[in-house]
C-alpha cells in the first residue's frame, strides 16, 4: 500500500489567550470504557525521592519560546512523562520494536532504553525485536529482547535488529501485529518511516484494536521538523571533525592544497553547517539550500583561486545534496530512487573535485593538489557519543511513558528542551531545512568568509520562502528547530 496522510482529523484543543494544543490521539478516543491501572512507578524505589514525578494532565510545551507580551500563546504540544494512571496492566503488554531506513548513531541505545524502560519501570517482560525493518513484520522474523540481551548494545554502531528501506504493506503489518497479540509498537525511523507508522495507526484505529503505535524520530541529517534536533546529530557533527581535520592537514602540507570533504545532507545542510562552524578549518561550505555557481565573477572557482593565493591551501565541505542545479545534464539525467522513495543523487564530492581539477588544468593559472574525503559510512556506523546517549535515553523513556498511558499515533521529541508527544502529521508535513537568510547561516558566512553565492534576485526568492515560515516575536525564523537561531 502507498504511504499517504492519515484520514483522521487532527486533535486540536484551544484555550484562553490564543492557546492551541495540537494533541495526540488516545486509545480512549475510539475504545470506550477502558480500564486504568495504578502506575507501578509510585512504588518503585528509584523514584521514591522524586517530588511531583507524575506529569500533570494539563502540562504542555510551547512550540515558540520567544513571544511578545500581547501575542497569542500559540501552538503547544503535550508534555511527555509518566502519568498516575496507565491503560495497560504490565502482564498484558506485548511490545515490539522495529528500526527502518538508514543507519544512525544511537539506534542501539534507543532499542536498549525502550527494553530496559519497559522492564525496569513497568515490569513488562514480553518485548520482541522485529528483524529487518517493516518487511520483518510479515516475514515473521523476530528477536526476543530482554535487558540481558540488550545490555551492551549501546557500545556498538548500527542496529541489532537490522534495517531496510521500503517494504511497507499496512494491511500485512497490522495483520501480523494482530496475529501475534502485540499491543505496543515502537517504530524508529525518519519521515518516511513515520508516515508508514501513521498508516499503521490509522489501520489499527479502524479495526478498533487496543494497540499503541508510537514513533521515535531518526535522521542523521536533522531534517525532521518541530523537534529541536534528532538523535545522532551531535555524534555526526563530532565525527565529521576528524574528516575535516584530515583534509586540513593534507591541504596545508602541500603547495596549493585543497581538501574536499563530502558530508551527509540530502536535502538539508545541517551537518555540513554545524561541522563547519565547529571546526574553524573550513574555507567554504556548500549545502542544498544555498545555490552556488562555478564560473565567472563571484563564482566558486574565483573564490578558490583567491583563497589559495592568500593562504596557500583551503578546505571545502559539501553536503551530498548540494549543487544539483549546476550538475551537467548527463550526470543528473535519470531521477532514480531508492526503496524509500529518496532520489539517488550523484556523488557531488567527486563531481566537484573533478570540476575543480579540470578548471585549474585548463586555465593553467596554478598547479593545485586536491584530496577528496568521503566519511559518510564511517560517521553513520559509529556508536553515539555521551550527549546523544543521554538524549536517546530521554526519547526512549518518554515514548514508553506515553505508550503505557494510552497515547498513540505520536512521535516522542524534544521541543524547546522539553520532551513532548507530537502527532504524526506534524512530523511528516515537511522537511526541516537551513534558512539561508537566517542568522545561523550568516554566522557561518562570517566564519568562513566565503561568498554567499546569493544575488539580489535569489535573496528575494528565499525571502518569500522565509515569510511562509513562522517567526518568533523577535522576527527571528522559527524553523521548528532550535538549532537554527
The first-level CATH class of the largest domain is given as: Alpha Beta
Low-confidence segments: 1-6, 469-485
Examine the secondary-structure arrangement and name the CATH architecture of the largest domain: 3-Layer(aba) Sandwich
Distance between the termini: 39 Å
- Tell me the fraction of residues in β-strands, as a range: 15-25%
CA-based shape: elongated
> Would you give the CATH topology of the largest domain?
Rossmann fold
Domain module tally = 2
- The count of strands amounts to 17
> How confident is the prediction overall: mean pLDDT?
89
Summing up helix and strand content along with how strands pair, one would put the structural category as alpha/beta
Would you list the SSEs in sequence order as H and E? EEEEEEEHEHEHEHEHEHEHEHEHHEEHHH
Range of helix content? 25-40%
The major beta sheet can be summarized as: 11 strands, mixed
How many DSSP helices?
Answer: 13
Radius of gyration: 24 Å
Structure description:
This protein has 485 residues and is an alpha/beta fold. It has two domains: 11-228 and 385-428, Rossmann fold, CATH 3.40.50.450; 233-382, 3-Layer(aba) Sandwich (Rossmann fold). It is built from 13 helices and 17 strands. It has helices at residues 107-122, 135-139, 170-180, 191-207, 233-252, 270-279, 300-311, 348-363, 376-380, 386-404, 424-428, 439-448, 456-467; strands spanning 11-15, 19-23, 37-38, 60-62, 74-79, 85-86, 94-99, 126-130, 142-144, 184-189, 212-217, 257-263, 284-286, 313-319, 369-373, 410-415, 418-423. Strands 1, 2, 4, 5, 7, 8, 9, 10, 11, 16 and 17 form an eleven-stranded mixed beta sheet that branches. Strand 1 and strand 2 (19-23) form a beta hairpin. Helix 1 (107-122) crosses helix 10. Residues 1-6 and 469-485 have low confidence and may be disordered.
Amino acid at each position: 500500500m502507498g504511504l499517504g496522510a492519515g484520514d483522521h482529523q487532527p486533535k486540536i484543543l484551544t484555550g484562553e489567550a490564543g492557546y492551541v494544543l495540537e494533541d495526540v490521539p488516545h486509545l480512549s478516543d475510539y475504545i470506550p470504557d477502558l480500564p486504568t491501572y495504578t502506575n507501578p512507578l509510585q512504588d518503585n524505589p528509584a523514584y521514591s525521592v522524586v517530588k511531583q514525578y507524575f506529569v500533570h494532565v494539563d502540562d504542555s510545551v510551547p512550540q515558540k519560546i520567544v513571544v511578545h507580551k500581547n501575542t497569542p500563546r500559540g501552538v503547544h504540544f503535550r508534555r511527555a512523562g509518566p502519568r498516575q494512571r496507565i491503560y495497560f496492566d504490565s502482564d498484558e503488554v506485548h511490545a515490539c520494536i522495529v528500526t527502518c531506513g538508514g543507519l544512525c548513531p544511537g539506534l542501539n541505545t534507543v532499542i536498549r532504553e525502550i527494553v530496559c524502560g519497559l522492564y525496569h519501570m513497568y515490569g513488562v517482560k514480553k518485548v520482541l525485536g522485529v528483524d529487518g525493518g517493516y518487511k520483518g513484520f510479515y516475514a515473521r522474523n523476530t528477536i526476543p529482547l530482554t535487558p540481558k540481551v540488550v545490555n551492551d548494545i549501546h557500545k556498538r554502531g548500527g542496529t541489532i535488529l537490522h534495517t531496510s528501506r521500503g517494504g511497507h504493506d499496512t494491511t500485512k503489518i497490522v495483520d501480523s501485529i494482530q496475529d501475534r497479540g502485540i499491543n505496543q509498537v515502537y517504530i524508529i525511523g525518519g519521515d518516511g518511516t513515520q508516515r508508514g507508522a501513521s498508516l499503521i495507526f490509522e489501520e489499527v484505529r479502524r479495526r478498533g484494536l487496543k494497540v499503541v503505535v508510537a514513533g521515535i524520530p531518526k535522521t542523521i541529517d536533522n531534517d525532521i521538523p518541530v523537534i529541536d534536533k534528532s538523535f545522532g546529530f551531535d555524534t555526526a557533527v563530532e565525527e565529521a571533525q576528524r574528516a575535516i581535520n584530515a583534509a586540513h592537514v593534507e591541504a596545508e602540507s602541500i603547495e596549493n592544497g585543497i581538501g574536499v570533504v563530502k558530508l551527509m545532507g540530502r536535502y538539508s545542510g545541517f551537518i555540513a553547517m554545524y561541522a563547519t562552524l565547529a571546526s574553524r578549518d573550513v574555507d567554504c561550505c556548500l549545502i542544498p539550500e544555498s545555490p552556488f555557481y562555478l564560473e565567472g565573477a563571484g563564482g566558486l572557482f574565483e573564490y578558490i583561486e583567491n583563497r589559495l593565493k592568500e593562504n596557500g591551501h583551503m578546505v571545502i565541505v559539501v553536503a551530498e545534496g548540494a549543487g544539483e542545479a549546476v550538475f551537467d545534464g548527463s550526470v543528473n539525467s535519470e531521477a532514480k530512487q531508492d526503496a524509500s522513495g529518496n532520489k539517488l543523487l550523484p556523488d557531488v564530492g567527486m563531481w566537484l573535485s573533478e570540476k575543480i581539477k579540470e578548471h585549474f588544468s585548463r586555465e593553467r593559472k596554478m598547479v593545485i593538489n586536491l584530496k577528496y574525503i568521503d566519511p559518510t559510512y564511517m560517521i553513520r556506523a559509529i556508536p553515539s557519543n555521551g550527549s546523544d546517549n543521554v538524549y536517546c535515553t530521554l526519547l526512549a523513556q518518554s515514548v514508553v511513558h506515553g505508550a503505557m498511558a494510552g497515547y498513540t499515533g505520536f512521535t516522542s521529541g524534544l521541543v524547546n528542551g522539553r520532551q513532548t508527544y507530537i502527532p504524526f502529521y506534524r512530523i511528516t508535513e515537511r522537511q526541516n531545512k537551513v534558512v539561508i537568510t537566517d542568522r545561523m547561516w550568516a554566522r557561518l558566512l562570517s566564519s568562513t568568509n566565503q561568498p554567499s553565492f546569493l544575488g539580489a534576485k535569489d535573496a528575494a526568492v528565499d525571502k518569500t520562502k522565509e515569510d511562509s515560515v513562522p517567526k518568533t516575536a523577535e522576527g527571528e525564523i522559527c524553523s521548528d528547530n532550535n538549532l537554527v537561531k
